[in-house]
Amino acid sequence: MKTSAPAGPAAATGGTESKARSRGRRRAPGEPRAIGYLYILPALALYSAFLLYPFGQSVWLSLLHWDGLTRATWAGFDNYRDLLTDPALRAPFAHALLLLVFYSALPVAIGLLLAALLSRDRVRGMTFFRTVLFLPQVLAMVVVGVAWRSILAPDGLLNDTLRTLGLGSLARPWLGDYDWALPAVGLVGTWVGTGLCMVLFLAGAQRIPRELYEAARLDGAGPVREFLTVTLPGLRPQIAVALTLTIVAGLRNFDLIYITTSGGPGNTTSVPAYEVYHRAFDTNQVGSAAAIGVALTVLIFALTTAVSRLVEGRRP
Amino acid sequence: MGPRRRLPLAVWITGLALSAAACVPGTDGSGAPVPGTGAGSAVPDPARAGRTTLTIWDQEIRGGQNDELEQLNEEFENRYPNVTIKRTARSFTDLKTTLKLAVTGANPPDVIQANQGYPDMVAFVRAGLLAPLDNYAGIYEWNTRYPATLLNLNRVSADGRRFGTGRLYGISQTGEYIGLYYNKELLAKAGLEPPTTWKEFTGGLGRLRRSGELPIQFGNLDKYPAIHTFGVLQDQLGAERARDAVLGRSTGFDAQDTTRAAATLADWVRRGYLPKSANGLGYEDAAKKFAAGEGAYLLTGTWQLAGLKKTMGDRLGFMPPPPADPGGPPVTTGGQGLAWSITSRARNPEVAAAYLDFITSRHAADVMTRNGVLPAVPGRAADRVPPQSADGQMIAGWRRLSAADGLVPYLDYTTPTSYDTLSESLQGVIAGRLSPERFTTTVQEDYDAFRRAQRSQQPQPTEPR
Lengths: 316, 465
Hints:
The complex is a heterodimer. By secondary structure, chain A is mainly alpha-helical. Chain A folds into two domains: 1-33, no CATH class; 79-310, MetI-like fold (Orthogonal Bundle). Chain A is built from 15 helices and two strands. Chain A has helices spanning 8-13, 16-24, 35-61, 78-85, 87-120, 126-138, 141-151, 157-164, 181-206, 210-218, 223-234, 236-251, 255-260, 272-282, 286-310, and strands at 64-65, 73-74. Chain A has a two-stranded antiparallel sheet. The radius of gyration of chain A is 24 Å and the shape is flat. The model of chain B is unreliable at 1-7, 30-38 and 459-465 (pLDDT under 50). In chain B, helix 2 (63-79) packs antiparallel against helix 15 (362-370) and helix 10 packs antiparallel against helix 11. By secondary structure, chain B is α/β, with parallel strands linked by helices. Chain B folds into two domains: 46-174 and 337-383, Periplasmic binding protein-like II (D-Maltodextrin-Binding Protein, domain 2, 3-Layer(aba) Sandwich), CATH 3.40.190; 176-335 and 407-456, Periplasmic binding protein-like II (D-Maltodextrin-Binding Protein, domain 2, 3-Layer(aba) Sandwich). In chain B, the strands form three sheets. In chain B, strands 7, 8, 9, 10, 11 and 13 form a six-stranded mixed beta sheet that branches. A five-stranded mixed beta sheet of chain B has the order 2-1-3-12-6, sandwiched between helices. Chain B has a two-stranded antiparallel ribbon with strand order 4-5. The interface between A and B is large, with 47 and 56 residues.
């Protein structure tokens, strides 16, 4: 289909510009406007059946008190009010936001650093390094969880290494330590996310015109200045993508917690996604679980929108 | 994306939310059969039921348990060729997460394994999803087959609010209890005999520690194992009081017992009787370490026996927690396997009842024993197990516990939230973050909150039909 005339849905949902154009122009002959809906119908049907409908149902459930079995009763905004007032529900959100430092900020920062180093000069065996650093991204989160659970065990690889290095006093039961469990789980997230960020940034850096670097160098910029004035602005879209992906991954983090700590010790590593599961399946608080889920969705939506506005620079 | 795009999306979502809102989820409990159902008083004959398919959902997927059940299912089908068993076996967690949808769905299984306690069994009963079995208990003489303590754990009050009393909603195949595993070699090396009293056991811990051994292996990363350890400690101070509290027959756990037991737990960690890194060590990892010779004792359930024996062979010994006096009645945390229940919409409840009777019969007990599984009521095969083997010790211990009525139900049965409360606070006690006194208060608050909620709902309006 070569025609440039936007089909129905594009016109309906597209920006102002395309709307104005479609109004001013006649449609391509012989092509009924409504057929556009038919083109998107398969995707829309799937999307509705598997995403929009369940989401609507979650919203509805979050307004009820329901144990999953007996007749539900109307709760209004009780479940949402509990999110703000119940410390047991506020804690998981606080933990999730703290985990974003490890899941999002650190991977992006390290990814930028690696990309800056690797893209400056030709590194021998570049493909190899890239593959190795990207590998965690390929593994299923369950596998990552099982592996790190054993690395962080009291007699695991990490503590053994520390003891071998004479740093035995630093060894601790990482996942069972009240102060260290959350950072320990967070660093696993850093390990997973860094490769993805780096690969994104490397790809982005290759698209930055060489002339900009040459110009910067002619102007006497050092590596730092070069990074700040050329690489960083050039990578803006990639940084936005990386932040969005890692924020979403960090906030919906369930598998890692489920496998490593189950929210413990105490509730120091409880996160919203785990709490959704726990309440829905273990303690028969389906309404509350749904409210957490909806709140989490809103939070993710808000943060990713903020990223696309602030970092990517898109205007509303 | 601009707001122009988001608006229709929001409209979509609202629209879908409203369409989903068209029905209030859940049953109103009207599926509950009238009290005292289970036709007549004659023993049902499945052979006369015509072609029947019995759908079963269970979680007996571990080695011996799976083998035992497979064999019994086959025998049942051979005895009644008109009956076909359709079995769905899942892990405990998988069963727990899918069972609710299955029993409320359009095509519920006939027989299910329900986990005792408020979140599962009591919730099912309140929703009218399980059939009471009292009538069958009379016909098949389950009331005399099982000790009352065990049978009570499968009872739920008629109003579906209380656990441990009321109508019978299931029977269990297997027994289980928290016992003391010991490594014979390590004890001998430290110059210790297997303890015959609780004092002897605790007294030997220091000696083991001094001889450079880890006295008790323990891993609590998975949060629940401490409930078992703590339960055993609490039981030694007052098993009867603890049992009354779990079953809601008192105003709460005895504060002194609870504080002292928690203090002992914290003390054992401080002294190095339990590993200091317990909160960071997985439950199965701890069992593996014990099997590999790290730790003289391991306090955990009978379900670990088969696995430990495979690695340790004759070095493994097992007993209920030793009693206060030599040869005295032992007490411990324990109970029975998940209850086998009949759903209230089972197509042929009589065949289901006959099946339940068959898999818990004396013959079934022997099949279980031969597969290394502890039957709730041991049969003749159990007598032939060498008494000095770990299996023999386990069976003998179970008989002593049953005879002395020494079982205290799992503490997490107490309230719908006691699992979370106990597991989280005990991690705090072990880490030295939560004082024993504070722990007792936390447990009592959980208890009080639940009783208050129960009372406020008590004069329950009769549900509309």
